[in-house]
Amino acid sequence: MANFGKIYESSWWGEGVCANTIGWGSSYKSIANCSDASFSYAEASYAKNGTDPTPTITGDAGGTFTATPAGLSINSSTGEITLSTSTINSYTVKYTLADGTYADQTLGITAATFTNTYSLAFDGVDDNVIVPYNSSLDVASSSHSLSFWLKTTDGSTQVVMEKGRGGELAVFIISNKIYWGGAWSYYGGTTVVNDGNWHNIIFVADGSSSTIYIDGSSVATKTVALPSTNTDDFVMGTDANGSNAYDGNLDEIAIFNYALTSENVTSIYNSGVPNNLDDLTTPPTLWLRNGDNGTFKSPQWLIPNNSNVSNSRISNYSFSYDGVDDYVDVGNPTELQITGALSISAWVKFTGNTAPIVSKYESGSAARPKSFGLEGDRSGSNHSPKFFIYNSGTIYETPTSVKVVDDGNWHHLLAVFNPSTYLRLYIDGNLEQENTTSIPATIDNDAADFVIGAIKSVGNPVTFFSGNIDEVAVWNSDQSANVASIYNSAVPTTITGSVAHWKMGEEATFSTNWTVPDAVGSNNGTSANMTIEDRTGDAPNSTSNALSYNMTESDRETDVPS
Description:
The chain is mainly β. The chain has three domains: 105 residues, Immunoglobulin-like (Sandwich); 187 residues, Jelly Rolls, CATH 2.60.120; 223 residues, Jelly Rolls (Sandwich), CATH 2.60.120. The protein is built from two helices and 44 strands. A nine-stranded antiparallel beta sheet has the order 30-29-28-27-34-25-41-40-39, with no helix packed on it. A hairpin with a 2-residue loop joins strand 35 and strand 36. The two termini are 34 Å apart. 46% of the residues are buried. The N terminus is likely disordered.
């Protein structure tokens, strides 16, 4: 609360003044024009994940808010504080009127507060959680750290977590004790960890030595070379082969691409439950909260990387197509029998010589039903995509793109048909190819099924996509004007006005095959020949999301570190 008061005084020359004594500073104004800069915030401190506060101005309006030291995100006109972008510190907020009269208040910004409610329980048989490989996990060859909470009563040899068989980020329990297996150089302290209590385990490698901390205290240090990185998945609960299963609970797993200081270790251990990672200057590259922000979409737990929450992600999960027999069939619903303006949006990651991404036609003779399609060039060397429609049996298409898209990265495609005007193909928000020559007014409305990841011939799939597909959407309108917003949108892709939208991994459920819901209608797709492993945490603009295997909904438990 601001500390201020008005005091009528007589100066030595006899003129009255109005003194606003405010905290550590004072300003004075002639009694003939006495100003009031009083204001207050409701609280003396705010957590970074709280509701952004705005002060109550009880004095004169029209002043300016400032803060010292630097680091507080404050609106100079209203005094509203943006907590998420403010630095943890103590500040003096000052409200100054045009005549120099001011008031101030001391205000603190504290670490984010949250409740840790759930952990995940591993059965010691086949339960695991997998983060598909991406380059953000390549931390082991330079200074790095790994932090997690563990609770177990099993002291037998078991793998807690591991990235590859070369010992990268490998954690074991051997003879009741924790071991750090970087570069296969096993070592650990004498502390027993299978006592049925929660323990915070932190491994720190600074390039010359590695240290194991248990519950904030260093228990072992060894001079050891940094391991090489690999392109293997990061697996929790078993080794990379699904063996040596861990029996117990895991919570709040975090990987850092730098060496934590001893002060960081103490702060993580003592900051409450769970690890209050927002206190750190640089966030982890991976932070899995397990049960707390995980969602169960039968038959898996979907666990997003909490370190990326503020990023503009497109989605968390996609489907992987094997190029052999995988596809998703939507059938031929009325909403997809589009004969006029048409737009198709999809995110793709090519891993092989490709077939259609989306098809609504059948290959073979001219008599087969044909409407439209979006596919990668099956004969080219870089899978450059093209978009085409049929009218009276004649194909109209964009020129094959020259843009290289099989570079191991996600790319966004938007295909557009504007009747009698153009066919367009946008790649990553930019117009890549256009055909304006003799464009027909309509698309043939033939009875072909709408298929994701394959072409049909005489009702049977014959050619298959190889790679990942995500966030497929269809409009019965020209979406050229919205390509930037569709490409740059947050989670998930903005779909306003679409007639269908398949999020792929986000909402799908599995029973023999995947059921892939239509997020805006009832045109659900059904996968063929796709297993539970075909839903992956590899998704556009997203990194290090995790999926569970062989774990049920009941494996999320309210037993957490305390």
